[in-house]
């Protein structure tokens, strides 16, 4: 949005962080992310390489909707880089949303190897097909009786494939289709209660091992196919992640009382202690003197940083200073 007022761009960014924080935060250079005092002891290149690897793994694990994700987010998909991400964004602006995964083969600079690496992590959600990435009307692909010609003269279908919204790789589509005919299910709609019941009853009757032998596939591939077919449309694995159990009625510093026992999640760590989000809009500090070995699980007692970002903890409020915005906490235990 280069032509928008900076204030409006900031408002859009805040809105996007509410919708999907990680998708927006990947745009920030790692050196600007406050992940602890130790980040200043590492070279910028080493820090960026380490964090980029983690981000790429997370993005690939969750998957991206190729028609609405940003160019920056696309760069972190396995098999894509800055140049290929830019080419996909330009293709969307020119032709509109991609209708299926196969159309990625039409994108300049994206060869067979790159397609093989990225295809399984890319989703084509049907409800986003009517959205155009550009404000102007997109240029449609030339109509060729349902087929379009790829860069090397390969026929590319121009109709949606329900399997493109799943985690199933195109290389396994033929196995998925044979499995569906075997269980008596239908591609439409993927993730429906009827399809789930068909899959459940057939797997329960024959077992995964026998079905995998019948389909000439590995058990791991068949398990992935079953997950892809039975998960509801738009499934996001992050929906099942644990969340801090913030205490009801405690939403601001004014609600805190000394001695109250709360649960939260470690936000950041420093040499002098750990900052914990307890759901009041400001993190509380567990001073290092209150992080004793007896309060830690045996597996964490030898770590240089006893607590790490993301860990769930139970804490007791030691002090509240609303004027300076400080909250003192005592560690009770680490929640497993």
What is the topology?
Blueprint: H1 6-19, H2 21-25, H3 44-62, E1 64-65, H4 71-74, H5 82-95, H6 112-118, E2 122-123, E3 147-149, E4 155-157, H7 173-183, H8 193-206, H9 208-215, H10 219-230, E5 261-270, E6 273-277, E7 284-287, E8 312-321, E9 326-334
Parallel strand pairs: 1-2, 7-9
Antiparallel strand pairs: 3-4, 5-6, 5-8, 6-7, 8-9
Helix pairs in contact: 9-10
Q: Briefly, what is this?
A:
With 336 residues, the protein is α+β, with helices and mostly antiparallel strands.
Describe this structure as you would to a colleague.
The protein has 336 residues and is α+β, with helices and mostly antiparallel strands. The chain folds into three domains: 6-163, Orthogonal Bundle (DNA polymerase, domain 1); 165-240, no CATH class; 253-334, Nucleic acid-binding proteins (OB fold (Dihydrolipoamide Acetyltransferase, E2P)). 32% of the residues lie in helices and 14% in strands. It contains ten helices and nine strands. It has helices at residues 6-19, 21-25, 44-62, 71-74, 82-95, 112-118, 173-183, 193-206, 208-215, 219-230, and strands at 64-65, 122-123, 147-149, 155-157, 261-270, 273-277, 284-287, 312-321, 326-334. The strands form three sheets. The protein has a five-stranded mixed barrel. A hairpin with a 4-residue loop joins strand 8 and strand 9 (326-334). Helix 9 packs across helix 10 (219-230). The chain is globular. It starts with 5 loop residues before the first helix and ends with a strand.
